[in-house]
Amino acid sequence: MSRSNSGYHHGNLAESLERAAMELLETHSAADLSLREVARTAGVSHNAPYHHFSGKNDLLKTLAERSMAELVASQRRSLEGVDPNEHLRSMLADYVRFAVARPHLFAAIYDPTICVPGQPTPAMAVLIAEEEQLLSDTARDARPELPDTRAFAAAAWGLAHGLAQLAQVGHLPQQAVDAAIDAFVVR
Amino acid sequence: MSRSNSGYHHGNLAESLERAAMELLETHSAADLSLREVARTAGVSHNAPYHHFSGKNDLLKTLAERSMAELVASQRRSLEGVDPNEHLRSMLADYVRFAVARPHLFAAIYDPTICVPGQPTPAMAVLIAEEEQLLSDTARDARPELPDTRAFAAAAWGLAHGLAQLAQVGHLPQQAVDAAIDAFVVR
DNA sequence: ACGTCATGCTTGGCACTGTCAAGATAGTTG
DNA sequence: CAACTATCTTGACAGTGCCAAGCATGACGT
């Protein structure tokens, strides 16, 4: 895990902690995640994290940013189709896929107790703006005739976000999600 | 708050606790809600709740059911328009309004740590089915020509749910939500 | 080579939480 | 009035986030 493990002076604890927390977030929710357990799995004392993060929320904020960056990158990658409608469809499907695959990380991104609502981290603000731009561009290409592209893009984001939540909870199976996206994109 | 307050034997603690928790959920999230604080605001000892609920989650489950019932009732009420499109629009707007007005209660309804995913309370299952039917009927009236009403209804639910989340977080102002709903309903 | 020192991690402690166990009290029934 | 049960209490335990203080370690000036 770490390069030099000679009792004290771990080497790069910050990264080890992030890694450990990332793993734990695959089974625990952000609220259920214990900073002490993160420290334990990283093999350090319960207070070591405080020398690298100002607290539990700070660590979570870092992970949320990391995750959002991954999501945006994934969204950018799913733009490589040809048909604009297919662009939009695959982007939305990809959004839902990400949320279902990493439910707790996805939740952390939008968790008001981590990034206070309307008070996003600078880095997070940039990422959200990127995502918005990505969606807006895709929406414009798919519906060039619409006067208000922003509204359509907002609807697309809302749709993807909501389907993601409903799918996470087990209310919508994968196939229903795809059908719903189709119903939104196709006309 | 209670009828007979003679030291012991509160009278109707269960309801008082629910009321207290309901109030606290206006400022605290479900995870941040302390059962002990609920007991405190109800004026009883920290262990009294355990004689009426099996634990914190049980109380939250009850509140989530209560809230979902309220939401469904509200949705049913917003069906009183005339134009089918207007039906749909007002239903979606109402869904978002509810979520924004009571963010923590709304979150509790879909919180996997309260109602385990795919394991809803019987009462909750009924309410969800009702909501689904309500949306499905409205969707059919608004788009009778569509072959797959279920997919369109699922999209509508997803849209409302996602817009609600994004609005809660402060990402979408009210007017953007309305515009997005319009973009979805109108064609 | 050696003392000095800041960095990074540790132990210890505090107030808080959810939950279990056992005791006290009050209304009910014989 | 005695026994009983429902209801609420106090007490305890393990766990949490976080603050304060102490100790090990490697770097640096001399």
TrEMBL record, chains A, B:
Superkingdom of origin: Bacteria
UniProt entry tagged with the keyword DNA-binding: yes
Domain HTH tetR-type: 11-71
UniProt entry keywords in alphabetical sequence: DNA-binding, Transcription, Transcription regulation
Gene3D superfamilies: Tetracycline Repressor, domain 2 (1.10.357.10)
GO molecular function annotations of the record: DNA-binding transcription factor activity; transcription cis-regulatory region binding
DNA-binding found in the keyword field: yes
Any single Pfam family the record assigns to this protein: TetR_N
Residues in the DNA-binding region annotation: 34-53
PANTHER family with a match to the protein in the record: HTH-TYPE TRANSCRIPTIONAL REGULATOR BETI (PTHR30055:SF234), HTH-TYPE TRANSCRIPTIONAL REGULATOR RUTR (PTHR30055)
Protein name in UniProt: Transcriptional regulator, TetR family
Organism, scientific name: Agrococcus casei LMG 22410
